[in-house]
Each structure stands twice: as C-alpha cells, then as structure tokens.
C-alpha cells in the first residue's frame, strides 16, 4: 500500500515519517522545492523534537521520498495550510481554502478508482464536501461519495490533526483520532489507514461533525484563555494579584482557570475559532468576543511597558529614550519552543523596538533574531546580561530558564510580568 501525503509542513511531514516508520511506502508531496530537497537528504526544514531522527531513518531505509509532483498512491492525506483572510469589508475573517483546492487539483490526475482521500487540514464546516466537489469536477470519469454514496470509486474523509507542537511524534501515535467519513465505508477506510500507527482510539463520525469537533477543541481553549486574560486586566485595575487569585479559585473542585499571558499565538488557536464565527456570525457571540479579548492582550501588555518607560523617565529625567534599555524575555509563541509564528511576544518586542529605546531580546530557543526584529537598536542577549543592563524588564514567555532565574528577574526595578513568572 502506498500513502501519499500532500503538504510536508508541521503536520504532514511527521505524519508521513511515522507511516514510513511502520514500513509503509510514503510519497511526500510539497510545492516547496527546498523542503523536498531537504527531506530527500534525510534532513528536516522545520523544528520538532525527534522528527529529524524519524525522517532520517524513513528516507535512508527507502520508505519515504519527497517530490513536487503527485504520483499514484492508494491513499492521499492532505495536510496543507488553511489560513484566514479578510473580506472586502476587512471585518470578517474567512477561511482560505485555496491550498486545499490546489492540492485537490494536483492529485486529481493521478487518482484511481479505489483510492481514499483524507483531509487533515483544520477546516471550516463543509470544506471536506467542497474538496470532494473539486475532485469530482477535475475527474468526471470517476464517481464520488456526494453523488454515488457507498458505491463511489473514491472514498473521502476528514480526520483533523490534534497534535501539540513540541510533542508531535508522541501525540500522533498516542492521541485519539476523530474520523469523519462522507459515508460509513469512507470512515472505515480512513480508520484502517490511521490504525497503521495510531495507538489511541479512532472514533467514527461524519465529515461535518469531525470538522466542527476540531474547531470546537481549539475554540474551547481560546475562550478559556480569554477568560484568564480578561481576569488579568480586571485584577490589574482592582489592584489584585491575578496569579494568586487564579490559584485560590482553582482550589474549588470544579474550577480550572487557565493562565493569562501576552496573548494567544500559534497558527491554530488564534485562527480556528474564526471559522466558526464566519459560519455563524450571529450565533457565535462568545467565541467571537474571546478572539477579540485575546487579540487585544498584546496591546494591553504594551501599555504596561510604556508605563514603566514613563516611570524610568520620572526617576532619571536626563535619560532620553535611546538611553533606556528594555529587556524582552521570550519571543516564541509559547514556552520552551523556538516557534515564532503568530507570536504575540514577538509582536510586542517589535512594537517596543519602534519606541526608540534599546531592546535586548532574550530567547534561549533561537540562535539569531528573525528578520522582523533586525534593527540597530535590537540585539539578542543572554539572560544575565539583559537583567544587568536593562532599565525595564518584560517577561513575555514563561520559558524554563527564566523560571530557574526568577529570583534575579524579581530584582528588576521596572518589571512587566505578562505571564506570572513571579506569581
Ligand atoms: N496560552 C495561554 N494560556 C494558557 C495556555 C495557552 O496564554 O493557559 C497561549 C500560549 O502561550 C500560546 C497559545 O495560547 O500562545 C496557544 O498555545 P496552546 O499550547 O494552547 O496550543 P497550540 O496552538 O500549541 O496547539 C493547539 C492544541 N489544541 C488544544 O490544546 C485544544 C493542539 O492539540 C492542536 O493540535 C493545535 O492547537 C492545532 O494544531 O490545532
């Protein structure tokens, strides 16, 4: 059996490699020639613990190869991005299905009767049906479940990925999977495919419910983080320590409040709830508000930093902006990873850099500053140096090395602790 994975990013590549590690022939397809070349050398173009070892073994043992052109296979897994875009009014966030459309059109010429096509990309409700329609349009000689039900030539399902970045290899194997076929036979075919490596349970539903399940999981987390973030802003106004408050409230047996932070980053939780809001704008009031609360948090943190800058000016009137150094502790989108995608901390650091002060970035998980932060007044610094030289210290991500040095951070005179490092 040959499996083809379309899209060799943070989800597609680990999935392809794990199938290959079970001695299945896997064809990885990506439009990015650099990614394809890197993988064929047995190397990886993304950062994820253990992934390098699994990919290296899969390629050298001959089970995985990458290409830019789809080749015939028995099953196709589509794991391409589904970002959002703003419509003409600029107010609504719409799912961009163009990568799914392009992937469907790319595999259509090599599809054969008996094939299974699984959409893994997180998608708005209806996207799997849309994918099936694109495939049917490109291959009128084949039959599809939307018109031929269980008798169709091609089986189609949605099986959303649910792995946590940083733990992908383990979670791919251990997590339960939601399998949403367009018909029961489609579900059974997809379940048989995932059972090759999934040790968790593969729970069957229909495609629309599977799409909504994934959006629901991430919206649940977003709404709960928004609750914590809103509390942090309220507590600041009421002069209450929010970290102590949450720890106290969480002693209640049925209360489990998450942690306030610099905002919600990454490419999932800050995106997926918008797909629900776009489908049901009138009804999804709470989900919409949670998005606005979380998206507004970096601006609030920035205000706190500005207040500390003003405080430095008050105590040292002779200092100009360019004499002041601000240390930003952490720019990744969450603790203990190097992933800067959609990172609120990175956005805050960028804004601080435009204020005219010197900025020292402490990010133990990266070796060079991203292009967005390359400016004369910005440098990457070790923690000790930044704590010694900075007038204002802002903790934006709760990385382990910062927790270990919390006592030194606490000595800073002008401190913004967005993540409760000091409790
Ligand atoms: N965050 C907080 N406070 C918290 C928890 C998280 O501010 O108490 C912030 C983080 O700092 C980060 C953001 O939220 O900026 C998201 O981080 P996360 O760890 O909650 O989630 P992701 O984006 O790394 O991965 C999520 C996971 N979904 C859920 O936990 C419901 C993962 O299982 C999904 O597979 C992934 O989204 C995805 O790809 O959809």
UniProtKB/TrEMBL annotation:
<dbReference type="InterPro" id="IPR001732">
    <property type="entry name" value="UDP-Glc/GDP-Man_DH_N"/>
</dbReference>
<keyword id="KW-0560">Oxidoreductase</keyword>
<dbReference type="InterPro" id="IPR014026">
    <property type="entry name" value="UDP-Glc/GDP-Man_DH_dimer"/>
</dbReference>
<dbReference type="GO" id="GO:0016628">
    <property type="term" value="F:oxidoreductase activity, acting on the CH-CH group of donors, NAD or NADP as acceptor"/>
</dbReference>
<dbReference type="InterPro" id="IPR017476">
    <property type="entry name" value="UDP-Glc/GDP-Man"/>
</dbReference>
<dbReference type="InterPro" id="IPR036291">
    <property type="entry name" value="NAD(P)-bd_dom_sf"/>
</dbReference>
<dbReference type="InterPro" id="IPR008927">
    <property type="entry name" value="6-PGluconate_DH-like_C_sf"/>
</dbReference>
<dbReference type="Pfam" id="PF03720">
    <property type="entry name" value="UDPG_MGDP_dh_C"/>
</dbReference>
<dbReference type="GO" id="GO:0000271">
    <property type="term" value="P:polysaccharide biosynthetic process"/>
</dbReference>
<protein>
    <submittedName>
        <fullName>UDP-N-acetyl-D-mannosamine dehydrogenase</fullName>
    </submittedName>
</protein>
<keyword id="KW-0520">NAD</keyword>
<dbReference type="GO" id="GO:0051287">
    <property type="term" value="F:NAD binding"/>
</dbReference>
<comment type="similarity">
    <text>Belongs to the UDP-glucose/GDP-mannose dehydrogenase family.</text>
</comment>
<feature type="domain" description="UDP-glucose/GDP-mannose dehydrogenase C-terminal">
    <location>
        <begin position="327"/>
        <end position="418"/>
    </location>
</feature>
<dbReference type="Pfam" id="PF00984">
    <property type="entry name" value="UDPG_MGDP_dh"/>
</dbReference>
<dbReference type="GO" id="GO:0016616">
    <property type="term" value="F:oxidoreductase activity, acting on the CH-OH group of donors, NAD or NADP as acceptor"/>
</dbReference>
<dbReference type="InterPro" id="IPR014027">
    <property type="entry name" value="UDP-Glc/GDP-Man_DH_C"/>
</dbReference>
<dbReference type="Pfam" id="PF03721">
    <property type="entry name" value="UDPG_MGDP_dh_N"/>
</dbReference>
<dbReference type="InterPro" id="IPR036220">
    <property type="entry name" value="UDP-Glc/GDP-Man_DH_C_sf"/>
</dbReference>
<dbReference type="InterPro" id="IPR028359">
    <property type="entry name" value="UDP_ManNAc/GlcNAc_DH"/>
</dbReference>
């Amino acid at each position: 059996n040959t499996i083809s994975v379309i899209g060799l990013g943070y989800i597609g590549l680990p999935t392809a490699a794990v199938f290959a590690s079970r001695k299945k022939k896997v064809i990885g397809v990506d439009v990015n020639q650099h990614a394809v070349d890197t993988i064929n050398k047995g190397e990886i173009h993304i950062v994820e613990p253990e992934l390098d070892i699994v990919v290296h073994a899969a390629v050298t043992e001959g089970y995985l190869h990458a290409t830019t052109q789809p080749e015939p296979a028995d099953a196709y897994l589509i794991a391409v991005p589904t970002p959002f875009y703003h419509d003409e009014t600029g107010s609504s966030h719409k799912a961009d299905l163009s990568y799914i459309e392009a992937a469907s059109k790319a595999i259509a010429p090599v599809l054969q009767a008996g094939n299974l096509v699984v959409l893994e990309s997180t998608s708005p409700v209806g996207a799997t049906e849309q994918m099936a329609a694109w495939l049917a349009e490109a291959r009128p000689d084949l039959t599809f479940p939307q018109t031929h039900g269980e008798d169709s030539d091609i089986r189609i399902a949605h099986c959303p990925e649910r792995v946590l970045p940083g733990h992908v290899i383990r979670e791919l194997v251990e997590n339960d999977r939601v399998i949403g076929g367009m018909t029961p036979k489609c579900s059974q075919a997809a379940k048989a495919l995932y059972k090759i490596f999934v040790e968790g349970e593969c729970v069957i539903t229909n495609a629309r419910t599977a799409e909504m399940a994934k959006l629901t999981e991430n919206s649940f987390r977003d709404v709960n983080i928004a609750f914590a973030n809103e509390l942090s802003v309220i507590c600041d106004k009421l002069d209450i320590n929010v970290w102590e408050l949450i720890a106290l409230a969480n002693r209640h047996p049925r209360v489990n409040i998450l942690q306030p932070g610099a905002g919600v980053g990454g490419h999932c939780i800050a995106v997926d709830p918008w797909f629900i809001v776009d489908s049901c704008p009138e009804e999804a009031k709470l989900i919409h508000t949670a998005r606005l609360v979380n998206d507004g948090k970096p601006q609030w943190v920035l205000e706190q930093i500005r207040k500390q800058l003003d405080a430095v000016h008050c105590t040292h009137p002779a200092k100009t902006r360019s004499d002041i150094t601000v240390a930003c502790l952490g720019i990744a989108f969450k603790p203990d990873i190097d992933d800067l995608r959609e990172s609120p901390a990175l956005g805050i650091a960028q804004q601080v850099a435009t204020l005219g002060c010197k900025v020292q970035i402490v990010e133990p998980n990266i070796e060079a500053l991203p292009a967005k932060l390359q400016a004369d007044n910005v440098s990457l610094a070790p923690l000790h140096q930044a704590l010694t030289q900075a007038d204002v210290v802002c903790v934006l991500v709760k990385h382990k090395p910062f927790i270990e040095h919390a006592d030194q951070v606490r000595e800073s005179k002008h401190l913004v602790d967005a993540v409760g490092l000091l409790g």
